[in-house]
Known about the structure:
CATH class of the largest domain: Alpha Beta
Number of helices: 8
Number of domains: 2
Helix content: 40-55%
Radius of gyration: 18 Å
Structural class: alpha+beta
CATH superfamily of the largest domain: Aminoglycoside phosphotransferase (APH), C-terminal lobe
CATH topology of the largest domain: Aminoglycoside 3'-phosphotransferase, Chain: A, domain 2
Distance between the termini: 24 Å
Amino acid sequence: KLIGRNENLYLKLSDDQYHGTTYDVEREKDIMLWLKGKLLTPEVLHFEQYENTSFLLMSEIGGDVGYQYFKKQCDPQKMTIIYSEGIKLLQSISILDCPFDSHIDYRINELDYLLRHNLADLDSENWEDDTPFRDPDELYAFLKTHKPNEEMVFSHGDFGDSNIFISNNQICGYIDLGRSGKADKWYDIAFCVRSIQHNFGNDNEYLDQFFNLLSIEPDWNKIKYHLLLDELF
Length: 233
């Protein structure tokens, strides 16, 4: 974060070893430019590459980051509504001309690259308590052999309370868009489920509210698959 007299800016960096992955700030820059007029995101102010590093300079988004908003409001019902509205907005973006992929095969191929270059997160101590695997190789094998059918929509790719900004009880901006693109509709929903369970407890009241607001029945197999895939990123 670069603090100025009149405005604050954000500088994000990525190393060449992540080039072409969803961690690459050049990809994130291209996604934000494509989303201009479709979704509220930071403004791309400058991008350049120097030696082995890419630099992305962005504007600041107003409002409170999601977890700060919830800390102030302490209102799970209101936050659940905000999550559902965010999902609806993301999935309303047409993917007919979207050049960015984030579907399962794309992510598995990315994971293959990260594993070959020792860049994947293999520390099972960081995994969810209910993850039925403790060995990364077993989890990887499961992900390769149990890929569900996908219902393609536009996806944020890392949707949660740390990557949305809220003002007047509405999302006023999305950040960390490197994983955005065409993906299964349950991808972002799975991340919301995880946030609701972590922040509001395991009481089904708010999960039921969330799915009612989306007018869908939960597909727990797909939700679990996407959360398992995220364990290695």
